[in-house]
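Annex B. Sample input.
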Amino acid sequence: MREDQSPKEASGRIFYGWWIVAVCFLVLVVHSGCAFYSFARFTTTFTEIAAFGSSVGAIGFAASVYMLILGLTGPAVGRLSDRLGPKKVIIGGAVIAGAGLMLLSLASQVWHLYLLYGVVGLGMSGAGVVPVSATISKWFTKRRGAAMGIATAGIALGAFLALLTDLIIDAASWQTAFLVLGLITWALIILPTTLVMKTRPSDVGLLPDGAAPPDEVAIAEMEAAPGAEVSFDIEPAWTVTRAMRTASFWLMLVAFFLVGAVIAGVLQHEDRFLTIMEVSIPATLGLALTGGIGGLGKLAFGFLADRLSPKYTAIICIALQLVGLAILIIAQMMTQNVAMVWAFVIVFGFAMGGNITLQPLVTGQLFGTASFGAIFGWVVLIAAVGSALGPSLMGVIYDASGSYSVGFMTFLGVYAVAITALFFARRPKPIGQNTTS
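Annex B, continued. Sample output.
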């Protein structure tokens, strides 16, 4: 950048941070599509292959391994993002994930699925939400919610890669599909990230949100004025250790753990309870639309967070999920319930979509960005554990009661606890400092 150029002139008409958002969007499309959404299509094929045991439960456990690895590695990936920069972590993760997907084409026993989906989970943890959120948090402050919403909308769009997987399996084979997904991971993550990704605006002489740098002449004049004071708001450097000493850290984890459990518990059983309800809406279509509408929620709640605050936007988001679940409970009590089921799909789908967008925003609001990756890694870990337990909890309640209604009512209470926990999670006073934050 020339000395006589402003940051806007040096980066063109579009603030460079939005190109970063575009790359992050693409990363999350591949992250969700090549591993998570596509697995559902492979499950149908694997149950028809005797070598894999033909057990839905045994094959489905591969997805559990994937989610578990994704969550457990969150804190480590966060620390690496803080130390090495998100760019290196994303590229390294894409290399591992792409290799794991291609090696899955050689799988011939069910334990191969467990091992290799674990490898894919390790890679997608690196090429996933934690480093993406760390990057956006450094590039945006005032418009962080909008940027995060746009980037995480890629998760919803990734569902369309499952359709591509289906086409390849039908036209060629499941082995070919894994090879293609691995190549897509390498091509659509490694190249754009290498060419475009920058860790922070200062790397290219910019400030967050495309703001102009302070006018040195104006600052000098202010300093020279009698009685003038020039202050700069320096963000306290929260570390994981310091954050763990605060009640707000644990309240935040409790909230996102509980919300993750409910969302996963509802979504993983949606196809089944819609089938039991015998509505005219195809169960699989209802599930797909719930996820698709979630993409709109990611955008909407991201923009709202910029205008309200991430924490209170998250409370609204959870409360709207509660309303959606209450609509479903009412629908179960009705005979002509198609309209109410549609209302559930729209309200719950829209609201639950905002969850993944708001998690990093709330984390940044409470604890800043100095050690964002490491702190947010714990949020991802705890939310993943909740997501792993939610479907099992719903299943246990159903087996004991013979109805989904008891589970839904229980989840209403869980949502109420999550809202309460998040309400009391306030931005803590920096430890060892006398100033309030």
